[in-house]
Amino acid sequence: MKKEKYSFEFERFESKSELAAEQKKVVEEAYDISLNAYAPYSNFNVGASVQLENGEIFSSSNQENASYPVGTCAERGLLAYVNANFPNIKIEKLAVSTPNVNYPLPPCGMCRQYILEIEKKQSQPIEIILSGKEGDVLVINSAKDLLPLHFTDEFLG
Ligand code: THU
Q1: In a domain, 153, yes or no
Q2: Distance between CA atoms of 65 and 72, rounded to whole angstroms?
Q3: Does 157 score more than 90 pLDDT?
Q4: Distance between CA atoms of residues 50 and 30, nearest Å
Q5: Is residue 111 part of a domain?
Q6: 110 and 61 Cβ atoms separated by less than 8 Å
Q7: What global pTM score does this model have?
Q8: 76 CA to middle of ligand 1, Å?
Q9: Pocket test for ligand 1, best of 36, 38, 44 (most atoms within 8 A of CB)
Q10: Which domain holds residue 38?
Q11: Where is each CMP/dCMP-type deaminase domain found (predicted)?
């Protein structure tokens, strides 16, 4: 038996104002759309925005449902739309934000897996920028970093 360790490097900024202009833009879009999230059951608003390689930005929010499991996270709703409409345009950045907390909002496990699938498909890392209403912002280099020992199509044989 040998012990192994998983770790990854990421950047922590003390506020949104410290980000580069392109990063700030996509974070602001994610935050703005989160204000109109459809989250009447959890009252937890989430927004997600992507910046494509052509500079275009698309955004979405969580969409809940009276039948709770039917609801979808902001990230997956957005990525489904973007991958359906622009399957050959790479995603450079993905921002996730919320007005509900003052710390960087981490994507749920299912969304991490979803982001990873798109990242692998486009053969280019997606920069993931996590923020809340105020406070620290985390910049993560790749979906892979958020999902140790990840499952991909390679295991399907
Ligand atoms: N939510 C997201 O939209 N993205 C995440 O990564 C975490 C959770 C939503 C789902 C649900 O509508 C609400 O936040 C509370 O879990």
Answers
A1: no
A2: 8
A3: no
A4: 8
A5: yes
A6: no
A7: 0.97
A8: 10
A9: 44
A10: 9-144
A11: 21-154
